[in-house]
Amino acid sequence: MRKNIGELATRCLRRFESCDFTCTETATAWHNDGKGDQTIDEKPEQLEPLADEVDPLRFYITRQFRGANGVIQQQVLRSKTSDGSRSDCHAAMYFRFDGHLIDRMEEYAYEMPSA
Length: 115
Known about the structure:
50% strand, alpha+beta, single chain, Nuclear Transport Factor 2, Chain: A, 20% helix, 2 helices
């Protein structure tokens, strides 16, 4: 088992905050949006418009479970737009790694307006 695969997943999220998706060439992603599997190259297309509208774009990990080659975690993407409105996107996310690169991501997410 990798020395600290949980920390590796956390570092990947920090890179995602700046739309840096360093993954294997064959990496795939699944989201609960009904589109099925996607290439990892499509993930930045989802976050880049959001990154331009919110400040800051930040993931908060609430729980994390580590395995030999993967991590499953619960997280919240908190955002605040320029007009001051806030929202939370809650998600359960699975990362599978090949070495130090993401090879597979699966994400079930739902957005909730903040009070």
